[in-house]
Every structure is written in structure tokens, then in C-alpha cells.
Amino acid sequence: MRALLAVLLCLLMASPGCVTHDDDRMILATTTSMRDSGLLDVLLPAFTNATGHEVDVVAVGTGAALNLGRSGDADVLIVHAPEAEAEFLEEGHGTSRTVFAWNTFVLLTPEPMNGSLFDVLDAVVEDERCFVSRGDASGTHMKEQTLWQAWADAGRGDVIEDRSGIHPDGDWYLSIGQGMGAAITMADEKRCVTLSDLGTALFRSDTVELELQRYNDTVLLNPYSIIPLDGPHGAAAEALRSFLLDDAAGVIEAHTVSGEPMFTPGQP
Q: Residue ranges of the domains in the chain?
């Protein structure tokens, strides 16, 4: 079942970062933002060289990754939705949850947009500027819904809740049900606004013509956690957790774009 699942997911996502599985390799279910940032391309070979454990990657949204953990179809998770992760552990899944790296969420816009985070969201709604949402129950999608709800709670406007989550109403709001890379590509092609994790935004900065807008706001903190699971590869999963905490800080800090780090090791 696990091997079939990995093959099917690879075919459905047509992702070069997703490989088929054999029973001698543990399955890491992780976020598309972590994959799209390129960090796994340096972290996992270093881990394999250090420990001998080989890893197959299934990159999906955080919600889907947690569901793979629930069904026993993954050995370890790397995800970035703290509330959903806490609920996962409260249900009795996973052996631990440890933040090993963090960055921030940013807005990507077709041109510079001045003002605070809420000022920019005001302009998006008032001008009916197209906004690309991942709409995939990922950590980024969960964060986006938090932002829209906070915007509404501040009296800036109204939101609705439907199958796309919490968001303002309007045809300009595009929920695509895809990963971070696809959302950035669509935003670039259609000249839309989108929310992204910093790592993927930096990784894609040379391939798109979107402005990266940062805000000094704690609501935009983006911690990544590792959650090992009990199972046939439990020891390898714990080894990956230990590697990320004890040995990977230098690798994480060295992963840069134009000299700028994508992630900071440890907790925010």
C-alpha cells in the first residue's frame, strides 16, 4: 500500500522531487514549500551520507502530510502549521514535534505596494486585484486564512467561509488547490498577489517578476517542525530528527539565494 501510494502521488504531482518507494527507505511526507525552497536537496543527501538512511519524499500540503501520518503511509513529517500539528499529536499520532528551522511568510505582488500588511490587503480587496490562494489545506493556506480573519476582525472588511476556506468574496480571488510553486507561477503569469513562505519566494526570485514584500509582524512567523512516527522506520525517523537538531544548522544557514539565507535554524 505504501509503495503504491508513493507511486500514485508522484504520478499525480508529476514532481521531479518525488520518487517511488521501496520498503528499505523511509517516507518523508513534507510540504511543497519545503521541497520548492530547495533545502531538502541539500539536507537529505547530507543526512544519508551521515547515517546511511535513505529517504523517499512525498511533497504535499501540510494537511495532506498530516493525513499520511494518520494513515500510517509516512514515517516522518516536516510540516509548518503549529495548531494542526498540536491537534495531530493530541490525537495520539507522532512521537514528538520539534521546530528545527523557521522563516517568515511574505507577500508577492506584481509591483511594490506601500503600507502595512493590512493596508495591502485593503488595496487588494478595494481594487479587486487578483489574489492567488493555494487552497490546498497547506500550512501556507492555513496562514492565509488566519490573515484574512485577522483583517476582518480589525474591521477592515468582510470575509466568507466556503470550500476554499476563509477569504473575501469576489471573482478576483483564485483558489487553485495546488502547491507553492504553482501558486507563484500563476501569480506571475496573471500579475496577481499571493502569500508565500520566504524560502520558496527567494528560490523563485530569479524566475518570476514579482516583488517580495516583507512585514515585521509576528503573525507571519513560519516555523517548520519535524514529527517522527512509530513504525518500521521509526529509528530512521528519530535519526533524521536528531540530525536536523544537532548537525544540520550549518547546512540550513548555508542554503542561500544571492547570499541571503532562506531559513534560520532553531526556533523563532
A: 2-103+223-265, 104-219
At the second CATH level, the architecture of 2-103+223-265 is: 3-Layer(aba) Sandwich (3.40)
Cα–Cα distance measured from residue 84 to residue 243, given in angstroms and rounded to the nearest whole number: 24
The pLDDT mean for the chain works out to 91
CA distances from 232 to 23, 25, 73, 92, 236 (A): 9, 10, 11, 17, 9
Determine the topology of domain 104-219 in CATH.
Answer: D-Maltodextrin-Binding Protein; domain 2 (3.40.190)
Name the strand (E) or helix (H) holding 160. Answer: strand 160-162
Q: What is the pLDDT of residues 75-105, one digit of tens each?
A: 999 999 999 999 999 999 999 999 999 999 9
Domains 2-103+223-265 and 104-219 fall in the same CATH topology = yes
Q: Return the SS3 of 258.
A: coil
On whether the CB atoms of residues 113 and 191 are closer than 8 A, the answer is no
CA distance 70 to 88: 8
Cα–Cα distance, 176 to 235 (Å, whole number): 37
Q: Is the pTM of this model over 0.85?
A: yes
Instruction: Please give the Cα distance from 226 to 219 (Å, whole number).
Output: 21
Residues in the chain: 268
Nearest to 251 by CA among 38, 43, 28: 43
